[in-house]
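Translate sequence into structure tokens.
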Amino acid sequence: MTIKIRRASKPVFEELGFASEDATNLRLRSELMTALLELIDRRGLSQARAAALLGVSQPRISDLARGKIDRFSVDTLIAMLGHAGAEVRVSVHGPRVA
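Result follows.
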């Protein structure tokens, strides 16, 4: 069996059929979730200890670990990172609004 890989012509979530605005939100949430998972891994935290650090329940950490992106808002993910002492910066690119 041969697997064919092709370079995406659009961002991955748009390639999957999401509208541009939804794709942008999903990309941002996935980046924040990845940052949280990396933080948990670097610190060697169990789900229970991660939950205590991030100010959420252990089942929320389980949802995070299983990639349940639909269960997290951008605000929630930023708050969790803040509880861990992480600095979150936002950068906006594109046309200037007059």
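Note: The chain has one domain: 12-83.
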